[in-house]
Amino acid sequence: MILVAGGGLAGAAAACDLAQQGRPVTLFERERVARHKICGEFISIEARRHLASLGLDLDALGAVAIERVRVARGSSLIEAALPFTGSSLTRRRLDAALLSHAAASGAGIRTGCLVRRTVTESGATGLELDGGEGVRGEGVLLATGKHDLRGMRRSPPGRSSRSQLCFKSYFALLQASRTALEGHVELMLFRDGYAGLQMVEGGIANLCLVTTSDRFAHAGGDWRGLLQSLTAESAHLRHRLQGATDRLDRPLSIARVPYGFLHRGGEEAPCDLYRLGDQMAVIPSFTGDGMSIALHTAKQAARAVLTGEAAAAYHERMHRALRPQMRIASGLSALGRSTGGQVALLLGARLWPGLIQRLAIATRVPDLPVLP
Hints:
alpha/beta; nine-stranded mixed sheet; five-stranded parallel sheet; 12 helices; FAD-dependent oxidoreductase; Geranylgeranyl_reductase; FAD/NAD-bd_sf
């Protein structure tokens, strides 16, 4: 029995894949039902292919097509076609559908089940659940997302990440704004951060943003105050949100996300514990490739288990494969949060019309062949 800790995108995809290959697998998820999560919800072409290979039909779930990108700073605006057609779908709907599909494929799904820590006995790794229940298996896939298990903490975030705050909410836009936003993902740059806006299913828009704790404090430590501060600076965001209705009572928020984290592993780590999703790599949100990494590492971790590849070898292989994209994405994120970098990005995009497409391609996760 393979054990999967975490029922988000990475964990559910890995459990689904293993079950479809005939391996007994049980997934443990802390939440009883899928919930909204801090995520821009942009699904790249690679992520869409991974989901299709598992048998999940995004169009049937109501996914919205994304074909173009707009970048705005102040009153400046540039637009370009994406080098592929992406999709947009809420994580709540996607995660629920993938967990259901994994169960239908034969995976055991235990929801409302909190994993406290990993336990290694006689060379085998198992899980300790809330309440003290122990579960033993033939390998553990660690897919707990942004939640670290006791004793399995990732490297702490760097100085810049420690000061960052992430917020997300959904808005019902006026019809004119909805029509203008259809088929686009919009990236709005402002002092000390950036925001992404795109339509999701149900005719609502996802606003996901990264700012600093200082800016949030200067805005009164309040979501409404922060929005007022951002719309005062960004004419484009102000125009989009004019007359809009916030669909959440309070925004989702998170701090100290270890952007740029890339696990390498070591000889001291258990040979049968495989990290995937945010436990393997946390790519800066600026490039919108987090879900692709989650699905890519899920596929590779499942194949590593199936072929008997040791966890250390898998981690080293993933580290080599993801490092170039992580470096580019981290550099772009740093540019996107600085005044000089923002000006340079917009100027470069105006001088070289193909720059945005090239950057989008450069930060995509490589579609590595799985092990035989």
